[in-house]
User: Fold these one by one.
Assistant:
Number 1:
Amino acid sequence: MIPGRFLKKLDKLVTHIEEWTLFVIVMAALISLFANVVLRYGFNYTLAWSEELVRIVIIYATFVGASVAVKQRAMIRIDAVVQIFPGLQFGLTFYTNLLMLLFGGIMVYYGYKITSLQYMTQQKTIIMQIPLVIVYAVMPVTGAMVFLRTVQVMVQDLKPRLGWGTPGRTESQHNDSLSGGPDRPKDS
Amino acid sequence: MEMSDLIILCVLLGCMATYVPVFLCLFFTATVGFVFFLDMPVTLLVQTLFRSLDKFSLVVVLFFILCGNIMGRGKTVEKLITLANSLVSWLPGGLGMAGVIGCGLFGAISGSTVATVVALGGFMIPALIKNGYDESYTLGLMTTSPNLGVIIPPSISMIFYSMISNESLEGLFITGFIPGFLIIFCVCVYSFLRYRNRTDIRRLPAPDIVQLVRIFKEGFWALMLIVIIFGGIFSGVFTANEAAVVASVYAFFVEYFIYRSMNFKDIREVTISSAVTSATLLLIVAAATCFGRYLTFENIPNRVAEVVISSIQSPVTFLLAMNILLLVIGMFMDIISATLILGPVFLPLLGPFNVDPMHFGLIMTVNLAIGYCTPPMGVSLFITGALGNRDIIYVSRSVMPFLAIQIGVLFFLTYCPQVVLFLPRWLGY
């Protein structure tokens, strides 16, 4: 039971970090860009750092969002085959999750390599003087998060099949995510 | 075609057919190409993945998604529907017209199809059926009208097209106007003709001046949002970027302070879910850039161009072939993935056939959007089928008249480029 409870706490903690990171950085980008528009038209003045900030926000939001998207099963897929043969869904999801694990691994390994290169050169962004190593570090970190989230999703899928845990539990685990249900339709 | 091209194509299609997330399909195909055929390090690929996100222009995606999501969550959509409803529902087939106009208005805020289907279909379908409209008409209407979400600006897929083609985004947005209006107009005429002689359908009395004023007062804040986005972009006051930012701030302001339909928790959730949606799209952008890098190294777009140019002579045949191809691809693939994957391959073809890239961007968007609800595989069919508890065959049959209208509009704008291009040209894009 103890590892179970520990994992649950870890899940909660990571969810917390993911969600607050996304909220804070997106809001920061929104506010700085809005301020920029107001200043430009009202006072003919531009915030030089806002563009740089926004670029970092996009990188962060995309990689952190990737980890959340794995958990919420919100990745965009072509689901024609699954629509025709619903029976294949379980197997295909399992196999795509394996590929996702591989992707997480690639992100961690090569992301770490690229980041440590930045660490050696000690470069900084031009205006805000943020060390590039912080910007690049998001890759290995979120790579690990993608990996963990994929494992989590796989366990959720396997549990009822193998008869682990109490039946019906997995359902509520899916629904604690934000925009809801598993397998959202692909968006455009 | 060389052996390596064939293998890459098989890997890509194989991944796509087996439910692998689209960005992974692209990334792994690129990886296979880099490692086995180009003998280049994977580090380069991962670096490309990262660098392709380091672009300021991508922010427009995030904020248009955010803006659309705020609207869907809050009261704005409801206000827009009420507005459309009270303006046209005294006409025969009026509620149906309200449905398509509502989709158009919502499309003017959001850039996505599925968001529109879910936001509007959920309550328009029961409302139409309750008022005596045929089920087949209702489902057909609400399956196809959400296409207006991508055709009427702002459109997320046009943002991506402008990124790969370097056409002006504001200009592309403006081209979407005329086809959007044409579709709305034709569907309204169709509804009018179909329900002209029916007496069993409840109609509201025509509103008088006092009522009209009240209706506009009620919908004022929602309409202002459209004024900000359109007016801002068309008059050149805002760039598309700024319009998205200002519209998001305005939408938060209206929902939080005026309609009071959102609290802090809602704001947080909407922001997060928008960030996640945009992340899933931007991952595809990043992976498509990696894949594009491979295509360029292998000089594939130019080789495809050579083959096509040697086998097709006239621009008309070329456009027709494009129409059919995109319609079929649109059935299986979502608009954004298709734009990002096929755009770079098709763009070198436009010069030799004398097709304007801006015009082609519009054709591609409208075409792929129609593919989205084309039987037998279009995704929208499955969504409305689920909303209306009907099987896919029933929905497929019900979309036919609407599909005919949209395909008619598509052909019209494909072969009369002057009609769609005059507006952006006139405004100087």
Number 2:
Amino acid sequence: MLWKDLGLRLRALLFRRRMDEELQEELQFHIQMQARKNRRVEMDPTEAMRLAQLQFGSCVCATEECREQRGISSIEIFAKDVRFAFRMLRKSPGFTAVALLTLALGIGANTAIFSVVNAVLLRPLPYANPGQLVFVPEAQPEAGISGLGMSYPTFVELRDGNRVFSAIASLGGHALVLTGYGEPSEVSTVVVTSEFFTVLAAQPLLGRVFISEDSQRGAAPVVVLSEILWRNRFGADPGIVGRSITLDMRPYNVIGIMPASFHTPFLNQTNQVWIPLPQDPLFSVWMTRPPQEHWMAVIARVRPGISSAQVQAELDTISSRLAKEFPAEKGWAIRIEPLQQTINGDVKLPLLLLLGAAGLVLLIACANVANLLLSRATSRSKEVAIRIALGAGKRRIICQLLTECAILGMLGGLVGTLVAYCAVAALVPLLPPSLPKLHSIRVDGWVLVFAFVLSLATSLVFGLAPVLSAAGSDSHKELAEGARAGESAGPRRARAFLAVGETVLAMVLLTVAGLLMRSFAQLTSVNPGFEPNHVVKAMVSLPQFQYSTPKQWAAFSEELMTRLQAQPGMQDSAVAGPLPIGLLHHRHLSDRRQSIAAGGNGRHR
Amino acid sequence: MAPDPSRLDLLQGTLDLLILRALRSQAMHGWAVSERIQQISQHVLQVNQGSLYPALHRLEHRGWIKAEWGISELGRRARFYSLTASGRKQLEVEAENWSKLSDAIARVLRMA
């Protein structure tokens, strides 16, 4: 019934002219039939026609009533309101431009920040069944330590002794030097245990991923390449699989290529390789370190249907077993937390704060536009009063004013989405690369839905006060007062209220922004204890195999220093590892680049 | 025209019933519907033309009657209305209601 009704209404709307013509034809036919009947009672034809028309009554009224029965009015009225709204906006281009710009900035800022929030916080991790993925840290509640990694013996105990994980793996990152195939360059190297790709349920683009045999001691060194590296460095040659490449002067056999859509948790880079832990020149020697050294970041996939409480119970059993085996492990507990939570970690609060700030900006924009509308409503109150006097219902007036607001809001949203589109493109390169899922930040369908809903909600917020004040006005008084250009008390109060609210919100934003600026200024003006001007730095990485002992590093640095000193324009130079006020450890997954930083303390003469 | 005391204005809502009844046996155009109602009621019931067409359109909208263009006795195009299946059912319901109502009113008038 509803569909049929809608169909009839739609037909009435689309074929309005034809239906009107048919209706006229039908009514004319009736009048002619009546005239013919009248003629039969001996009447002259003109008189018969006149009488027939009289008998019929008002044709216009009947037509109007028939139209009403067809039920087109509501859609037609809406279409009329929309046309009228556009006309009103065109009539005052200054007002329209200011209002649109204000709204576009407010909605644009919110949409841009939301696209970051959506990508980083709301969208699930880009792996199959991401809800099953957990981060497995170790903690010592008594000492207040949490979120640390684990030792290799602990990892082995956990991997072989648990019944709750379908797969478990560790990952760590540093850089190795890739030679051959062009210029030597550093590649981001992810050192993983054999089940790493199984945990993330990732499939290679070409070749295969690691199997447990690859992690056995004495196995041939193997490597998996990222698609980007494969394309940039090896010209997307599929024949590379099965050949060997040189990392830190040591040959690794390429066994597979991971697609560009695969992202390593915590350590996402485009030019990336993955190698098994026992074959890594740096971390492999750490495998024999005792359980109290917490260096491995461990992720796992929980078996389907197992609750986190069951997992925790199992982990507690394993912890107590470990504590018996290794007394130094006493007091340490293995924990789990959703991988998504670990990855989002520190960014959640700042992002939500940013969204809140953008929301305040939008509220200020709303107040501004509401104020503009209110001051315009004063000049339009006479028009409204006349329309009410001519018989327009309050509901019609409210509907029409709301339509105007909605059109304004939607146009603002449209421009705002364009603003957001540009803002996101400009924002992404500025964001810290450590931000998780940076690559997936874009204006997508959900962001568009957000912008649409936001625009509608915005129009309601800024339209409410002007619409209510227009509808609440007394038409007689307005008409009487019409000559005087005064403003009645209602709108004046509303405008004062809006101005106060706006100022309050702006003060809040200013204060917060001021505090942030001050913190930043204080950070940059901290006395580092040295004279940072005219100092340049350079970073040097040395292949592990050539330079594996501190003695070799020292020899290299001495040679480097001698040659640097010989350069003109250099006052002094030094080697340090790491540099003062450098980025040291990013949680447990520090970039353990075994590098020598040469701090050239060279004052230009 | 001066109002004719022998003619009655239709009660609100009864026009629909009369239209449905008039269309029961055959399809006809609007003018024929009004003529038929007047003839059968021996000119007691006067169909106001201004409300006949809105009523026809309303009934069509509700799906009780359907309209088709046909050729009339004048040789001109005219809109012919006919009952649909649900219109037939509606006619039964309304006729039933009407006879109940008129019986009740007649009984009250007799007793009072």
Number 3:
Amino acid sequence: METQNNGFCYADMYLRISREDGDKTESDSIANQREQILAFLKERPEMILRSVRVDDGYSGVNFERPAFIAMMEAVKNKEISCIIVKDFSRLGRNFIETSRYIQRIFPCLGVRFISINDNYDSIQPKTSSDNLVVPVKNLMNDAYCRDISIKIRSNFITKRKNGQCVAAFVVFGYLKDPKDRHKLIVDEFAASIVQDIFKQKLEGWSAQAIADRLNEEAVLSPLEYKRWCGSNYASTFKRNAKARWTAVSILRILKNPVYIGILEQGKSTTPNYKVKKRFDVPKEKWICVPNSHEAIISRETFENVAKILLSDTRTSPWEDMVFPLSGLIFCGDCGRSMVRKNNAGSGKPYYYYICSGYKNKAGCHSSHSIRAAHLEQAVLAALQQHIRGILNIEHTLNAIDHLPYAGRQIQKTDQRLKAKHREIEQYRDYQLRLHEDYVDGILSRADYISFGARYTEKIEEAQRAVYKLEQEIEQLTAGYSEEQQWISDFKRHQTISELNRKLVIELIGKVLVFEHQNIQIQFQFQDQYEHAFEWIRCLPVAPKKLSNRDVC
Amino acid sequence: MEDFAFTKVDFEALKQVDVRTVDRDTLVDIGTLKIDGNLPREERLKEFVRQVKNPYCFKVGKIAVSVSFSDDEVSFEQRMEHYLQTL
């Protein structure tokens, strides 16, 4: 299209406002900008207005603005030959980029640029003062952004140091307090899922197995849960129609100290207000505030899980969980881990552990081979007799009696069941609306069928989860759950009958294997013999001392 | 049982026994211990030490086992209680 004809030219007016930049809402309002430019055009009949380009809510720090990009397309396509703005700051507040557009890009593209309030028109002859004033004005506009950026950054730092959460979206397990948006409060429903994830990890489940189980139970992943709660959260990493639990999301939860009440903020930042790319901040510079909110995981559990995550374990392809002692058995001589092997070739197959340093010829002189069954039996017998002999069993049985276990579990499962029912209702509601849209002709038949099938699939998935949860509640009420069985066994025998991963992690730090079937078990609790015997020793002595003093 | 002179047990010396060099025949098999669960805790503790002879070094079948404890202030009961809370 011819943009300049017989003295006429086609022009676009460009309007922009952003509160973040400190624009004055009154004088910089879109309506005000439009009015000023229209008044300017009225006096210039040779200029024909083609489009009004509006970027409402876009910062002038960069040029990634939809209306501006569209306008530049129009310039390149020769649809317009003139751009009119109220003042330079509407075009941009980035000194370097704005100057580049005014002095290089617009002249190169042959487009005329008019800034009304600055009395600037690119086709007018430039005076020497113009050459000085234009850059200075752009520099001043830039200073606004710089100033606001500094103020906001320092405000964020203060808030972070005070333990106030400044994140736009909060982590799974917490909600923003409706009374104070910088405070985190526990989201009971999501917190119970987080607690289960930690529990399953302690029981020996791998992160992938936990994720698979949650997906099987149709538990909403953090992203889906946020959206289900009505949050506007979106992620560029989302690939599937419904985001699912993954090993990565499980590990992210297991490693996040937010669950023990520590608020870690300032983990990534931008180099300055002009660059939007985020960079990771070194860990020592993070702002960490302990006890800033209620913990949903105990410190001991968090530390036990951290210990497991550091250990080198592998789940057998035929098992769901790791073996009870996985990652805890080390060679007593070279310190390397012991690996589990199977001599499947022999007539009587059995499992055994050997030193990985010896197996990989990495310096250990002996295999330190020990049968898995013998080793596990030795650890079990040691634990059983220590529980019988030195544990204050009355204290432990008392703790069991005060466990709100069954009630708490039933409540948790019931909560999940209700949430699933709500989810089903919601999907049915969507299906109904879909049908209405189809009847009204808003939706094509193909779309109606495809969307409908998607919701049917979601409903079926939720119904399967409902069935599972109902079964779980039945088991809990009848006292048949694994944990309830363990408690009743423990009460009956006053010791344990088998090794379980969670108890091993709680009580044992390491098991060292020496040559010739010698092992050392490193318990994770203090030596009680000396304390106890000190106390017992005092019993006959104390009255004697007292009587001596009486004589004196 | 009454004859057991628990006050004379030298725990420091027992702790020094090295599982790598100890004569396995001198060790007690911990599986053979018979401790009456109805006894009060102190009595059970005394019985445990009396029967096992060295609570830091014993055997289970063919395996010689030594045990060590942590230096932190967490007790066996606290660990068990925490385990129960995570059930």
Number 4:
Amino acid sequence: MRSSIRESVAAEPIGGRAHWTRHVIRHAGIAGGVLALIVVVALLAPLISPYDPIAQPDIIGLKNAAPSLIHPFGTDSFSRDVLSRCIYGARVSLSVAALATAIAVILGTLYGAIAGYAGGVIDAVMMRLVDAALAIPRVLLLIAILALWNGLPLWLLIVVLGATGWFGLSRMVRAQVLSLRELDFIAAARAVGATSPRILIRHILPNVVPTIIVAATLGIGHVIILEAGLSYLGLGVQPPSASWGSIIQDGADQVGSAWWISLFPGLLIVTTAIACNALGDALHAAFDPRQITGASTEIDS
Amino acid sequence: MWRDDVALTILIEDPLKLPAISMMHTAAPTAASRSAATRNEGRLAWPRSPRVRGAAMLIVLATALACNGERKQGPASGGTLVVSTASDADYLFPPLIISTQGREIAEQLFEPLANIGDSLNVFGDAGFTPALADSWTWAPDSLSIAFHLHPRALWHDGKPVRARDVQFTIALCKNPDLASPIAPLLSGIDSVTIADSLTPVFWFKRRSVQQFYDAAYVALIVPEHVYGAIPASALASSPLLRTPIGSGRFRFRRWVPNATIEIVSNRTHYRAPARLDRVIWSIAPSDFGAAATRFLAGEADMFAAVRASMLPQIAKSDKVRLIEYPGFRYGYMIFNMRDPASPSSPNPLFRNVQVRRALTMAVNRASIVRNVFDSLAIPSVGPTVRAMATTDTTIPQIAYDPQRAMQILDSLGWHPGPDGIRTRNGKKLAFSIMVPSTSMDRQSLAVLMQDQFKKIGVAVTVSSVEPNVFERQQHSHKFDAAIENWNADPSPGGIRESWSSAAAHAEGSKNYGDYANAAFDSEVDSALSAGSPPVARRLYSHAFQTLLSDAPAIWLYEPRNMIGIQKRFHVAPLRADAWWAHLADWYVPENEQTARDRAAAGDAPAGADSTAASGNK
Amino acid sequence: MASNRGIVGTVISRLVQAIVVVAIVTTLVFVLIHTAPGDPFAGAMDNPNVSEALRARWRAMYGLDQPLLTQYLRYIANVARGDFGWSFSMHRPVLDVLKDALPNTLVLAGTALVLGFAGGIGLALIQATRPGSRTDRTLGAGSMFFYAMPDFWLALMMMLIFAYWIPIFPVAGSVDPIMHEYMTPLAALADRLKHLALPAITLALLSGAAVARYQRAELLRVLPDDYVRTARAKGVSERRIMLVHVLRNALIPTVSLLGLSLPVLFTGAVFIERVFAWPGMGWVILNAVSTRDYPLVTAGVIVAAATVTIGSLLADMLYAVVDPRIRGR
């Protein structure tokens, strides 16, 4: 439900324009900065990380050590440093989210653009299928797929995540393409003799780009949370790779006694998700705050 | 007769140490005593008469109770036990039960003809105590046994137990329409006839050492007048199964699916009602953490699967104690001797005993066991448990010596590459450890071992698979190494099932690694046919020595069976395979009863039994 | 999507579409679940008495050895009669399992929805009356914080803080598993409320944050409109303006949000139910998937999809009824 509202909120203007533009740019700055920081940390993981994330220095003495100066985030039940695991976990979480969103964006844009441009029966059939796919809550579908085909390799997990997340985007793109299709300059292009694919690529898609960018930014935040939840259930990223969600899962059954294992990766997820959302909102306001994309009834959850 | 050399300290405070069912003096059956039992079959020798023995026990019991003097009439009783568990029962109808949880509860509601003794002897009828059957008579040719039912045995709905019920139960269990999992266990029984209304007679196809066990203990008897009305094929989906009617010392009260199962003492039991007023299983479905929390928070009284992470809180609490009881489980990491890629050839890596020994040396077993289990397990000494008399803990183990391990691997030509992993002729020294995804302990062990192997230059991956996949890959020998958790046979000869060459080549065998060593085989065989216990023990020792130095597996841990329970409960001795076996003899003394104990004490009436209120939770 | 045939026509065509969608979903789910690897009788593998032959018998008994198409047709025929099959993992009819789980999810999600919407709208009102102020920005940051949070993590933290560190609430479950049967009606009610509190508050925080953000945007959009300025010129009090004129118009789109929330009612907040061991639909489906309980998973997902479809249908209808601009057509 929240992501359905996500689209709606993204679609609505948020108050007086001038005041908000300043506000938005300030927010975009902070959010963008935070995200950039996290990405940099992830890229420089081998240099920054204080310890080896899989090393088990002292499985008796250092097991489940509380946060201290030498282990700021504490250690887990195998005496591995949680801070180092979180730093390396950023790589997994961010790359999974980014790649899955990229796949979703590509699929959604293509599908929506084709449906919107073709119109008529093709459009109707394609959208009916999307409606059916949207009817199944994404979480349930993912749980069903990942639990039934257990232990998928990482790349396949990314593909599955991406393949289940493009439906809402395709509707948005289709709506935009529908309205763009009727504009004069398209008719002019057709009159000049441009072929349909050419019109699509050269004229229509560039105008859809802002929507896509906003959706992608919001989507990354959404997928990070989704992947974390799935890893928490044991269905997402499989060991030995560790994402933030799997670290939370490591600590979930000791949350009373070794709370630091679950707390810190969770905070990181929240921070990243907030940054993505703020950035997405800011980008949306910057590109076209008045545009109502008709997304208020989308369900992408 | 044997005596256990290892004294199993059972931390109970029960003044009623009933000698007949105490674990302190268990007889580990050997070939010698087994053959004696076989020879004695069919002869009504006085010491062996179950009737007299039963009477003797009752006299002992009565004396002990009289000396106790806690209550004027009847033994002390009362109390409500709440057991926290993470699994619901699948069925409470004995012919269909598969899960342990189902058995735990059904064995309180239903009774077999005779109960197995605490020594878990399954050969002949030694140690068995009367249950539904007061006594039994062997035919001279041992091809039939007549059981004499207790004349006053009643079902929970008041009807009397008759031989017809026994006949019906066995026929039902063997009926293919029901698809009962215990059908194969009854294959030795040809049929059950009725000599008179209280005497069912079991007829066997041939003699076997386990025929009495098969007849008297495998099947819990169910009433024909209740379950006979429905055709077997429709029985599994009948709602009748959710309100079981048996003859046990407890009767069924209610079952709220995935939430609660409640049983109450059967006040009209023909021998003795259960001493506890009620037992409630509080279920946190598939959620071990929640089940543990309920116990630690005091919402539940008992928890049967105590883990290391719970120990600090238990130590802090003054209301809760741990009771240890002997276990027959041990865990080990087995090397697959066959090549998983082409099962008819030997494993290229593990065929070399030096490699196996080196890998064993790389693992600091004591510390990984301590990390995972804290004090709840001890490092294993081999494919055996300390509870068995034949276990020799003085045999030298392969010691933890990673330096030596590295030297051995060096000498074999495995040299570390740039990434630290050893290679030879371009091949890396790497393998994978398979564990079932449902076992947190084994997964943790694998991860710890992975790190220790890495330190000597061996690359190990941990493959966590679903239990049925685990099973399948073991059967088809498609794995490198796997961590097994095995239930030892009380009889030491059971070792052949997993480690002998005969087992290695048998279809469906349990020798998953395909270990075969002729010297070991012959040593075990001699031990089995030894003349006297000390000789047998020495021979077993030799056999183990051979096995241990051959390193077919890395012997990891031997869990200590622990239940956590509130102190006010006085428990009966706990049987190794089933702590719940004597649940009906537990109680809370009157002066220690809490409000919850008393809350429904008056609420366990005769009427409120078979209606299951499956309403809201 | 209003057609020229008016409301009734719209409703009928949407209903037909909804049925088609549910049919497609049923087929997809059925095929998906039956082509997945795994075996519903895998849980029995631990028991050495369960042989391959026995499992083959069970498969035959439940018709699992038939070709997929036969199974599918039989399933459709049964569902039409209201028979959702037999749950392998719970050993009860699937309908019974769903009937037990559904009320639990309704209670949890319903409570959370009421709390969330009330809280969210209230928060939005406060923010909209002083846009740009420190209060507005703080509350805005707060709702952004909860809006972006993963639900399972919030549930874990809530449990940690309010059940472990400051033990005011019970850790899990919907009622006290033991004593509930023996409580007086008043005590039983209190017991239920105590168990409901944490999961409902957690869910309410998450949904309320989204509502607050959306509602605030709506309120601010309506504020500059002409009729508001007229009312102010007429001398109507600021408070009355806010509550009567602005809110009423700003609530209209929120009504459609309410309809969209209906799916949550039936699929359950999966992660929240899991963390708090709340025995609702989400929990049941999670369990059913891991035990390969085909009939239960299929039924659960179908119910979820049907609800989502009905939910969006109701949302559109409600929106059409409430929005005077559409009604006029």
